[in-house]
Design goal:
five-stranded antiparallel beta sheet, alpha+beta, about 20% strand
Length: about 1000
């Protein structure tokens, strides 16, 4: 225990008598404080009362002064009406004025003519010479207003003493003949103030309009004629009456009240000295202070007596407490004071508790030694690495055998090191930050996977867990770290991650390969289908027509398969983007039924459509084409696997919101059904339920896969309900936003040849042969065509001419298609002109770039007359004309031209050339223009400029596709991909050699008589 003698001076205890004395003082002070506050309150009340009284006095005095002046004005008006002035008998009037003056407060009466000349002045005998009027402003005011006027204080011209004048006009027959004035001495007004019996120490002043003191109740001989204080003058200008704290003319602090006359502008100011206001406050405060001091002295005397009586038994406890502190056994007797007895009992209990604590401490020491022995045994023999560190210095305090073996250091060596010294440099900052978070209490433990450096310099990966141990005072004492070697597990995870990454790259490469191959196959398929349709139209032999029908059916089936593969590859590579536009649900359903009706009729099946009529009229927003594609796939599948009965398409409401509809689409059939165990395989790519079904019904197994993935992109999932032999029902539920406007239904394309006479089209293309091919196609469609070889020329043409349509190549020198489009959109005449991109790239991101640049559409190379005519029909509908006679003449001309060219316009060009352009000419031009491109590509690659090399390659790809040199396009596309993928120099050289071989083959085609056959074989 701490003794009294051990305390420092700052810790000196306070005695009981001092504490009681303080208590007395604390009890007396509130009463004195309340009394003081009460005195101040009373003072405030008296001050407010005095202020109101002073303001009332100022107001009353102003009324007295006004009444006195008004009486004088009345007397002067009576005198002004005297007939003596009418008759001009001024001598008699002089005597009358002397009589009247006795009833006024004035000292003289003055009669003045309008020119300012005094005619009578009672201060002078009648007839004596008199001066001109001194206060000319008063005279002028009387003459102008024709009303009585009270002047401000002025000094007389002959008397040289202060005066106040009251002037009235003398009017006869509506004309002012004279000014009659009463001169009043300020002494008279001061006497009025003194007669009011105001308190002796109040200071009262009468002030004229100019702020000059006219009269005063004190020291008038000193202050009459002096200006009042600036603050009082300001207050008089701001208000008619009021009060404020200020000073008298003598400089005495006072509360000033004032009142201003509304009739003639004079004011009365009353000043009440602050000394008078505070006298009562000082008196009451003195009385309260004397009473409080008396009470305080009496209380202190009583407090000291009581305190000494209380302190005596407490002091008797001091030796008892010291004995208990030394461990002596003491007996404590009652002390006669309840509180002191309680302290004595507490000391007895403390004596017993001290004995028990000593016994418990001895047991704890023994248990701790035993626990430490067990911990050290477990710590040293643990199967994982363990270490103990100082959290402040980060130095090792201890390490078990496993930890030492893991890092190849002895325990002694580790104790001379910190944990940061054995941590990998890249992991040190994280380890230090984790330790700081533990010390700051932001985390209960720190866990991490980190690397340590062994003694031989090698690395070891460890799973680390660190906990902080706190001492009794709540300070960090030490850290306990547990380490587990995870090097092998880490290596296995990295290998697994690399394997997964390789698998994902392989899967992505597969999808890209499928997409590229699908595009490569589609181009010849379109040519085959077009040629077969042309041949079927011209062949009359039935057997030949049957063969051509079979060829067309097989080609269209193959094209459908390729389209499915392309769609699947787009979905898997995230290149398929759903459209978002308004559509009519009824129109979509009508198109779907139109596609599958023929198949259903051929098999004798009933095709049932169950849709609410109101739902058919619904205008929705989304991708109408992809929704129709899913429904066609499901209906075609149902028809294929149903031999008799019916196939039903139904659409039903699920829920309806203010801005959306949730719809359930279902396709039900009465076909062969699907066993439940085969449901999981339905939506796998390239699969059908079993091989027997595949052989019997055919197909790639992609229809359901594509439909399932399209529905998932729309936010739904396709489900199936079926069992073997009991038919099947495929359904999906999607949420579609409401649309705002129904799109116009597509009109059926007419078989009548379409011309666009009068339409002017600009073609921007850097390749001259490609420009010529597109120009010929547009000319055949009746368009006037302007050509530009780059973006700058296109911008120049657009600034000079107005075009109905612009076809813009994407890759051009100097200014590319995107930049040219943005510049053309700034021209006032072309802000809305349709601009279509022409490129070989079909991916969604390329189309998005076009839309952002301001383009309206996208055409994919190679162009055909059919695809070009379809776009012109959409964008130039207003220019579309059909002139039967002109078209017939032109058709005859084309047939004649076709016979002259023979087969030269055939397979290599895919039917995309116009009149007069033979195959040999096209190949010769292609070879002439692009024979140096491969050398330029080699130069760019040697300089490391792969971007320029890819631009040249892209240009060759586009024009080779236009002229039908498909093999050339393929090898150049593979070269471009090799550059994008960063392949090695050996692989790039192999691709360059392949390109050179194909370009040589093209050169041979137009010099060899068998060129047509070779072209068709290789390209």
């Amino acid at each position: 225990m701490e003794s009294a003698s051990a305390r420092t001076p700052n810790q000196r205890a306070t005695s009981i008598d001092r504490r009681i004395a303080k208590l007395v003082i604390v009890c007396v002070l509130p009463g004195w404080l309340v009394a003081s506050i009460l005195s101040i309150f009373i003072y405030q009340q008296e001050r407010e009362y005095t202020a109101r009284h002073a303001l009332d006095a100022a107001h009353g005095l102003m009324r007295v002064v006004e009444s006195d002046i008004m009486a004088d004005i009345a007397a002067m008006n009576v005198l002004a009406s005297s007939q003596r002035l009418t008759s001009g008998n001024l001598d008699s009037f002089y005597n009358k004025a002397q009589e009247v003056m006795q009833y006024t407060s004035g000292s003289t009466i003055i009669l003045t003519d309008p020119a300012g000349q005094q005619l009578i002045n009672l201060l002078h005998p009648y007839g004596s010479p008199l001066p001109r009027q001194v206060n000319s402003s008063v005279l002028r005011q009387v003459l102008d207003t024709r009303k009585p006027v009270v002047s401000d204080l002025f000094v007389g011209g002959t008397t040289h003493v202060p005066w106040v004048g009251i002037a009235v006009p003398v009017i006869r027959d509506g004309k002012v003949l004279y000014s009659l004035a009463l001169g009043i001495r300020p002494k008279h007004l001061s006497e009025i103030l003194q007669q009011q019996h105001l308190p002796a120490d109040w200071v009262v002043s009468i002030v004229d309009r100019n702020g000059t003191i006219v009269a005063r109740n004190r020291a008038q001989e000193v202050y009459v004629g002096k200006k009042i204080a600036a603050r009082l003058q300001q207050k008089l200008l701001q208000a008619r009456e009021g009060m404020f704290d200020g000073n008298t003319q003598e400089g005495i602090p006072a509360m000033v009240s004032f009142s201003r006359s509304s009739d003639f502008g004079w004011s009365v100011a009353v000043g009440v000295p602050e000394a008078q206001l505070s006298a009562n406050l000082k008196r009451w405060l003195a009385i309260y202070a004397l009473g409080a001091a008396s009470l305080l002295l009496l209380g202190l005397a009583l407090a000291i007596a009581v305190a000494r009586r209380i302190a005596r038994p407490v002091q008797e406890l001091i030796p008892l407490a010291l004995a208990i502190g030394r461990g002596d056994a003491v007996a404590i007797k009652p002390l006669g004071l309840e509180e002191a007895d309680e302290v004595a009992q507490a000391l007895s209990r403390a004596q017993e508790l001290l004995r028990q604590r000593d016994e418990a401490r001895a047991r704890a020491v023994a248990e701790r030694r035993d626990s430490e022995a067990k911990f050290l045994a477990a710590f040293d023999n643990s199967s994982v690495g363990m270490s103990i560190c100082d959290p402040q210095t980060r130095r090792f305090l201890s390490a078990n055998r496993h930890f030492c073996a893991m890092l190849q250091y002895s325990e002694a060596e580790l104790k001379a090191m910190t944990f940061t010294e054995v941590t990998h440099p890249d992991d040190r900052d994280a380890g230090v930050e984790g330790m700081l978070r533990l010390i700051r209490g932001e985390a209960k433990e720190f866990r991490a996977e980190k690397r340590y450096i062994r003694k031989d310099g090698s690395e070891v990966w460890c799973d680390l867990t660190v906990n902080l141990v706190w001492d009794a005072e709540g300070k960090p004492e030490l850290t306990v770290a547990v380490l587990k070697d995870i090097s092998e597990a880490k290596r296995a995870r990295e290998e697994l991650s690399q394997s997964k990454e390789r698998a994902e790259r392989a899967n992505s490469a597969k999808s890209v390969f499928l997409a590229n191959m699908s595009h490569e196959i589609r181009t010849p398929l379109h040519n085959i289908i077009g040629l077969a349709q042309l041949l079927r139209r011209d062949v009359s032999d039935a057997a030949q027509r049957q063969r051509l029908d079979n060829l067309c059916d097989s080609s269209e089936h193959l094209l459908s398969v390729v389209n499915d593969v392309l769609d699947l590859s787009k979905i898997e590579t995230d290149h398929l983007v759903l459209d978002d536009s308004d559509f009519s649900l009824g129109q979509v359903l009508d198109r779907v039924i139109l596609v599958v009706t023929g198949s259903a009729k051929n098999k004798g099946l009933d095709l049932v459509v169950d849709v609410d009529p109101m739902l058919r009229e619904a205008i929705l927003r989304g991708d109408a084409f992809r929704l129709g594609q899913v429904l066609i796939n499901l209906l075609a599948n149902a028809i294929k696997f149903t031999e008799q009965g019916a196939v039903t398409l139904s659409v039903a409401f699920r829920s309806e919101g203010s801005d959306s509809l949730r719809l359930l689409f279902s396709v039900k059939d009465t076909g062969i059904g699907i066993a439940p165990e085969d449901h999981a395989r339905l939506f796998a790519a390239f699969e059908q339920v079993d091989s027997t079904t595949t052989r019997e019904y055919g197909g790639t197994g992609l229809g359901l896969t594509i439909s399932d993935r399209l529905v998932r992109q729309m936010g739904g999932v396709i489900s199936v309900e079926s069992s073997a032999g009991a038919g099947a029902t495929f359904s999906f539920e999607i949420l579609l936003p409401r649309g705002s406007q129904a799109p116009a239904d597509d009109a059926p394309e007419s078989s009548t040849p379409v011309k666009f006479y009068g339409s002017r089209v600009l073609v921007a293309e850097d390749n001259s042969l490609s420009r010529e091919l597109i120009r010929q196609m547009l000319s055949d469609l009746g368009c006037a065509v302007d050509l530009a070889k780059d973006g700058n020329e296109a911008l120049d043409c657009a600034s000079k001419h107005v075009y109905d349509l612009i076809l813009m190549d994407m890759q051009m020198p100097r200014l590319d298609g995107l930049a040219a489009t943005e510049a053309i959109r700034q021209l006032p005449e072309h802000w809305s002109t349709p601009i279509l991109a022409v490129t070989a790239n079909v991916f969604a991101e390329e189309k998005e770039k076009c839309m952002r640049a301001g383009m309206n559409g996208h055409l994919t190379k190679p162009l055909t007359p059919e695809s070009l005519a379809k776009e012109l029909r959409h964008w130039l509908a207003e220019s579309l004309e059909r002139d039967d006679q002109a078209e017939a003449e032109q058709a005859g001309s084309q047939r004649g031209a076709g016979r002259s060219t023979g087969s030269d316009s055939g397979p290599i060009l895919g039917g995309s050339l116009g009149n007069g352009m033979s195959r040999e000419f096209v190949l010769r031009e292609f070879q002439r223009m692009h024979r140096g491109d491969l050398a330029r590509v080699r130069e760019h690659i040697a300089e490391g400029d792969h971007e320029s090399a890819r631009n040249v390659i892209h240009n060759v790809e586009g024009i080779s596709a236009m002229v039908g040199a498909k093999r050339v396009r393929q090898v150049f596309a593979e070269l471009g991909k090799a550059l994008r993928d960063g392949m090695g120099q050996a692989d790039i050289e192999a691709h360059l050699d392949a390109c050179e071989v194909e370009m040589d083959q093209v050169a041979m085609l137009y010099t060899d008589g068998t060129g047509a056959a070779q072209a068709q074989t290789r390209n």
